[in-house]
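Action item from last week, closing it out:
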Amino acid sequence: MKKVLIIVGILIMMAITNPDKTEFVIFAEGLALNKSEGFIEEVAAYLFAEKTAEIVTESQNYVIFSIYTLPGVDGKDINFIGLFDNFFPIGSVNINLDTVVGFCGTILLMLILLRVVRKMISKDEIDEEKNEIQS
């Protein structure tokens, strides 16, 4: 009976301390910031790591623990298990963490390009409206 109570107590503690996706996003942002080596990588990680991790993270909640998956640039997913308010890598993560920073840099470049294209489009629309008004 004592063993059953201990096991139930541990399971309850695991359920209470099962980290959620928000906590994992903060954890992933910290990883990206720690692994960035150059100035551009640091800026990309600082600006976009949290939002990128929030968007691309897949989570599976099993009540007493959770599995979080980040897609790797090279096609290999990066998996973590979350339990007792901590995250632990599943498999080899050191090689793949560099791809997270690279992924954030790619997202940064895509967002910059998107902003430039939007400005060009909105400028063209404004010019067209001016021409219509003048006509």
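Closing note: The first strand starts at residue 58 and ends at 61.
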